[in-house]
Design goal:
The chain is of the alpha+beta class and about 100 residues long. The chain has a single domain, classed as S16 Ribosomal Protein, Chain: A. It is built from two helices and five strands.
């Protein structure tokens, strides 16, 4: 399955991100199919290729939650935001209790 996601670039504490499309199971640092744009959260600047993003979405590529929210913010796609926060792990009774 193809996935549109953010690839972290830049130095320590100076992260910038590339918007890339690639196989979901492949390593994010590895080779990707296509570079679709970039985003710098420190300066809140970004540039995206709208035509190629719409092409990949029509071809069946899925977006990560962060990419979906970023593209909504920049008015490239329409829809609802997706909650991206990590969910707490479910615990069984007795497992969460502290051992004396």
């Amino acid at each position: 399955m193809l996935m549109i996601r953010l690839q972290r670039r830049g130095k320590k504490h100076q992260a910038s991100y590339r918007l890339v499309v690639g196989e979901k199971r492949s390593k994010l640092k590895g080779k990707q199919l296509e570079f679709l744009g970039w985003h710098n959260p420190h300066k809140d600047t970004s540039s995206f290729d709208k035509e190629r993003i719409s092409y990949w979405l029509k071809s069946g590529a899925q977006m990560s939650g962060a990419v979906n929210n970023l593209l909504l913010k920049n008015k490239i796609i329409e829809g609802k935001k997706i909650a991206v926060h990590k969910k707490a792990k479910k615990t069984k009774e007795g497992v969460a209790e502290l051992k004396a």
